[in-house]
């Protein structure tokens, strides 16, 4: 392949810009905020699940408390009704009177037992409600931290994308100076090796940092100025400049 030396030198400018573009793309992919957001999102999801479980437990206890209180009211009502019968004097039979007194005492004991159950449920429900409040607060705090990290990520994305767009614009100006066949070769090599062209500095390829053999140097010296050369080691386009010392 043949190409004017000036066009070949433009490959070095292109490679430099492509290196900047690659660094910007790598930076965009590896922003610390991305890992932070993923971690916070996972923690928020776990807490959301825990909140639902805690809310379910608290709801179950609320229904259990309502039922227990209803049982207390039912027993209290029966005891009050029997007490009114006892106080009214309507029961005159000693046997019936003793039976009624025994039932009232039994109902009072039952009421006392049920009230203890209600108190125990209320304590458990209070603990469950406190857990819901604590977990929800932690979830909301982490969600706010995630939102802040997302804002930082978006600001950095905008900054990186702006810089990348500027570099790509400059790249377009350079591409216009490079023949299509040479550019196609450069792009192919860049896709394969990450860098498509490198400078020959003295006897060293700056692409693979390898010192060329005397035979390779002599071959390069004998090549026409417009011949497109390749490094025998890394196969990148080898660009000759005044720093090559040839």
UniProtKB/TrEMBL annotation:
<feature type="compositionally biased region" description="Basic and acidic residues">
    <location>
        <begin position="61"/>
        <end position="87"/>
    </location>
</feature>
<feature type="coiled-coil region">
    <location>
        <begin position="97"/>
        <end position="166"/>
    </location>
</feature>
<dbReference type="Pfam" id="PF02591">
    <property type="entry name" value="Zn_ribbon_9"/>
</dbReference>
<dbReference type="InterPro" id="IPR052376">
    <property type="entry name" value="Oxidative_Scav/Glycosyltrans"/>
</dbReference>
<feature type="domain" description="CT398-like coiled coil hairpin">
    <location>
        <begin position="14"/>
        <end position="194"/>
    </location>
</feature>
<keyword id="KW-0175">Coiled coil</keyword>
<feature type="region of interest" description="Disordered">
    <location>
        <begin position="61"/>
        <end position="97"/>
    </location>
</feature>
<dbReference type="Pfam" id="PF24481">
    <property type="entry name" value="CT398_CC"/>
</dbReference>
<feature type="domain" description="C4-type zinc ribbon">
    <location>
        <begin position="204"/>
        <end position="238"/>
    </location>
</feature>
<protein>
    <recommendedName>
        <fullName>C4-type zinc ribbon domain-containing protein</fullName>
    </recommendedName>
</protein>
<dbReference type="InterPro" id="IPR003743">
    <property type="entry name" value="Zf-RING_7"/>
</dbReference>
<dbReference type="InterPro" id="IPR056003">
    <property type="entry name" value="CT398_CC_hairpin"/>
</dbReference>
């Amino acid at each position: 392949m043949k190409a004017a030396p000036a066009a070949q030198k433009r490959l070095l400018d292109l490679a430099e810009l492509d290196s900047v573009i690659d660094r910007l793309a790598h930076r965009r992919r590896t922003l610390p905020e991305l890992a932070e957001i993923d971690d916070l999102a996972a923690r928020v999801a776990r807490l959301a699940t825990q909140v639902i479980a805690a809310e379910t437990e608290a709801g179950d206890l609320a229904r259990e408390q309502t039922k227990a209180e209803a049982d207390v009211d039912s027993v209290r009502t029966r005891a009050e009704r029997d007490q009114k019968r006892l106080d009214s004097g309507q029961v005159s039979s000693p046997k019936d009177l003793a039976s009624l007194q025994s039932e009232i005492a039994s109902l009072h004991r039952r009421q006392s037992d049920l009230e203890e159950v209600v108190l125990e449920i209320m304590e458990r429900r209070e603990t469950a409600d406190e857990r819901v409040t604590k977990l929800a607060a932690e979830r909301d705090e982490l969600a706010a931290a995630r939102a802040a990290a997302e804002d930082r990520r978006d600001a950095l994305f905008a900054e990186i994308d702006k810089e990348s767009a500027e570099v790509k614009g400059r790249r377009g100006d350079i591409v216009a100076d490079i023949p299509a066949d040479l550019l196609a070769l450069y792009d192919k090599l860049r896709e394969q090796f990450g860098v498509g062209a490198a400078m020959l500095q003295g006897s060293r390829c700056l692409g693979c940092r390898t010192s060329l053999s005397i035979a390779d140097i002599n071959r390069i010296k004998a090549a026409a100025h417009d011949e497109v050369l390749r490094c025998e080691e890394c196969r990148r386009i080898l660009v000759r400049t005044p720093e090559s010392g040839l």
